[in-house]
Design goal:
Number of helices: 1
Largest sheet: 5 strands, antiparallel
Distance between the termini: 39 Å
Helix content: 10-25%
Structural class: alpha+beta
Radius of gyration: 13 Å
Strand content: over 45%
Length: about 80
């Protein structure tokens, strides 16, 4: 069974801080996988700016479906 994933665009939320989120419906995706995918997208975003992901906080909704993850991060 496959999952349907939607990822928000990276949004600025203050000086040098950004937010990205994901929603996964169906499938057998673990909460760790959902957060890992969002963190990788944040790392890729920072890498395109020739910076590295410096700090992040995450949250979301665990459970069968839908699962959500949000990451607030900073590139340095």
């Amino acid at each position: 069974m496959t999952a349907c994933t939607s990822m928000t665009p990276v949004q600025p939320v203050g000086r040098d801080r950004f937010m990205i989120g994901s929603t996964v419906r169906g499938g057998f995706t673990t909460d760790g996988q959902v957060k890992s995918e969002v963190l990788q997208r944040a790392r890729d975003f920072c890498g395109k700016k020739e910076m590295v992901l410096e700090s992040s906080t995450s949250g979301g909704t665990q459970g069968w479906t839908p699962q959500t993850a949000e990451v607030l991060f900073k590139c340095e």
